[in-house]
Amino acid sequence: MAPRLIASIRGLHHLAALNCENPRYIALSMQWIALLPRAFASVFPRLVGAFVLGLALFLGAAVGQAQEGWFETTELNPGLPPPPETLDRGTPMAALESFIYLTDNGHYSSAAHILDLSDLPQGDQAAIGAERAFQLSVLMERKVVVPWGKLADRPDGWLSGSAENNDTGRVRRSLLIDRLELGGHEVPLRLNRIKPGKDAEPVWVFSRQSTDNIPHLHAQYGPTDLETMLPDWLRIRAFWGMYLWEVLFLPLLLVGALTAGWFAFGIMRRLGEVAKRRWMRFVLRSFRWPAAIALCAAIIGTATSRVLVVSGFIDAVLSPILLIAYVTAGTLAIVFTFDEIFDRISPNNAYELADPMNAHMRSIATTIAAARKGVIVIAVLVASGVILVSSNADNTIGLSLLASAGAVTIVLGFAAREVLGNILASIQIALNRSARIGDQLIFEGHFCTVERIHFTYVQLLNWNGTRLIVPVSYFVSDAFENWSIEDHAMIRPIILTLSQNADVAALRRVFFDLLARENPDDVKPMDKAKVHVLEQDAFGIKVRFELPTDNAATFWDIECRVREELLAAAAKMEREDNIRMLPPAPADMGKP
């Protein structure tokens, strides 16, 4: 029926283009209208049936998922003898407490009932189960940090808490205890809720996959050969769950690792000083600190995981610290490498950059300084992201350490908000280029050249050779006069007080002759050179000699030299022409 319906629709669409008065068109339309109810009558039940079937499957799956509170199996550990009556496996917390209690007292055969031994042959479950219970007890003591706060004391594993927390407010049939690295990847250690048969009560046991991984984990994290050779008095418990050998070994290990890192830094610094090849000096300078930090972390990590395997509490503390150390070493290597590259390609001579012809070099130096800051900021952000992503979120102690570090960072950030403000201000200067490296400016009465723009301060080279260190936030908040920005040409005024009868025209000719003898590149444009009488009073007249200069680096010397020559010329005219050019001295004021 459906093909006929489709054919009729296609015919109707074809005839729609014809005259609506056509008898064939009308007949076919009536035929299609008569066929439409029969077609829908045959297709509609199938659609309804498919919809009802899909809805039933969806609801059934949802109900089944909501009712799944355990994993079902026909039997659990049939090769073991009946469990002790005192064994409590009804809740996650009770199962784990029972396992720890039994293994601490040497009852490994009874503790095997808290393992899912389904992958073992029935005849081997008793012997191998006791052995794996012993191996797991060693792992629990040495490597595993039990998240007691996430273990419910209810059969369904329900934990009370906020709706935003995924670990609370729901029935659970599998609980993650810890994750341990094995063969380059992490394997979970889980408790599963198993229902062995229709009439049996569900019990909590270590999962089948976790039980299968116990021998491999024990081989990696169990006692090393060196530890087994230690005397018994060193293998007793001291405090905080640590062995006595750990209390004595860890401080010595820390001192040895720091000493090795210090020697590595000194050796690389010495090699960098005597290296003849430029690229070798570059590499050694860039990797001094990263190599020292990485070597220190590698010694501690290897010694605590291969030489003498430390307990779980110490490992939970060391793991995030070593992770931060490795990431810090890599970040410093990248930052120092780029820093050396920027130093090579960036012009850094302040006197050369101050030359007006080197305006493009000043822009390049400032851009490189901004890029250097950008690399540092990006590297720090990426390193922080790597630490957060790589950290084991299920490791409570490690996560607490990272959270504590974050809280300390917030506190330090609030305390160091001035420093952070300076960092942002330095980036602002680099971007808007209000003061470029090499620019000459007047800052609070000091004639300075911008020598460095650091994260927290601006280093200004004063005209007398001293350095003026100004916090960046203070530098950008105070007004300064930039003599190198865009149009570096300026007019330097030389104002002289002359006698009432002074020959200004003669001094004007002297002034232009002096400018003609100067370097044309430093004194220009000459059409800006002017001489004006500003005012007159009882003491004399004030004459302004306008000195055009195109070089902010040389104008000071030229201005002083021209002023001296003008005064000398005025004194000479006064002696030779017997015309007073300069005002009378105070001692001559009363003389006729």
Task: Provide the fold topology.
Layout: H1 2-15, H2 23-67, E1 71-73, H3 92-104, H4 108-111, H5 125-142, E2 174-182, E3 185-196, E4 203-206, H6 208-221, H7 225-228, H8 244-274, H9 278-286, H10 288-307, H11 312-345, H12 350-353, H13 359-390, H14 396-415, H15 417-432, E5 440-443, E6 446-453, E7 457-462, E8 467-471, H16 472-477, E9 481-482, E10 490-498, H17 504-517, E11 530-537, E12 540-549, H18 555-577
Parallel strand pairs: 1-3
Antiparallel strand pairs: 2-3, 3-4, 5-6, 5-9, 6-7, 7-8, 10-12, 11-12
Helix pairs in contact: 1-2, 3-5, 5-6, 8-9, 8-10, 9-11, 10-11, 11-13, 11-14, 13-15, 17-18
Task: From the structure above, extract its key features.
single chain; 12 strands; 4-stranded mixed beta sheet; alpha+beta; 592 residues; 5-stranded antiparallel beta sheet
SSE order, as H and E? HHEHHHEEEHHHHHHHHHHEEEEHEEHEEH
Shape call: rod-shaped
Mean pLDDT: 78
Return residue spans where pLDDT drops below 50 for at least 5 consecutive residues.
1-30, 32-37, 56-67, 393-398
Q: Write down how many β-strands occur, each being a DSSP E stretch of 2 or more residues.
A: 12
Radius of gyration: 44 Å
Strand percent estimate: 5-15%
Total helix count? Answer: 18
The strand order across the widest sheet is 8-7-6-5-9
What is the CA–CA distance across the termini? 137 Å
What structural category do the secondary elements indicate?
alpha+beta
Largest sheet: 5 strands, antiparallel
Helix content range: 40-55%
